[in-house]
Amino acid sequence: MGRVRFDFAGENVLVTGASRGIGRAVAEGFASAGARVHILADDPAVHDTAAAITAATGADCRAILCDITDAGAVEAALAGLGPLDVLVNNAGLERITPLLDGRPETEETFRRIVDINVVGTWNVTRRAAALMSAGGRIVLTASIWSRTAVGEFSAYVASKHATLGFTRSIAHELGPRGIRVNAVCPGWVRTEAAMRSLADMARRTGRPEQELLDEIVGAQVLPGLLEPGDLTLLYLFLASDGARDITGQAFTLDRGEVMA
């Protein structure tokens, strides 16, 4: 199998939600391709992640600790970045929010998911776009649940449907400025968030986690559970010159679970 190589030398890249999981893998991919990478997360581990990426790639990876639901904090965090070439809007929260669960904490969780996945995405994008000139690229992390749905995850599903609407709307708005906007819709990936959701589903249904996981993987055309690094090349492609004529699109990467 041939190798795929990208060159982002001299480019300034911001990846949110990059202290672990998909965001970390994508950030390391850009760093390996020569970019100067900034990783942002509301998690002190972001500093250790930046150091690990720098050590692994030799590239300049810098950490930003920030809660993206705080517009003022986002503005301050991005103020020193300078001209920005690529934004990967990956930060998000995934939790179960059963509709008939009357506990106050479920309502609080619903609001927090929407605040991070919708409002936070808006906060980062509007400030990052102001730092971009013609040729800028924005890639958002959506989900296969942007195209379909599952019970008891209404906040997350709704927020990811919103991600696709947001992608299409700002693609129209930023296109005249020469900025491209696309989304990636991952399927089940072995991340901390996905495995927590799997555990919640097992608890709610009374079924073993492995049985549910086997069912999920069995619904894919290609076998095996995706790992975070399996998604990296798609993000790099969408930020590359190879995708210069692509905008306003959503790309599903799920080993054939949802075909659209």
Automatic annotation (TrEMBL):
Coiled coil: none annotated. It comes from the Bacteria. Pfam families: adh_short_C2 (PF13561). Belongs to the short-chain dehydrogenases/reductases (SDR) family. PANTHER family: 3-OXOACYL-[ACYL-CARRIER-PROTEIN] REDUCTASE, CHLOROPLASTIC, SHORT-CHAIN DEHYDROGENASES/REDUCTASES FAMILY MEMBER. This is SDR family oxidoreductase. It comes from Ancylobacter koreensis.
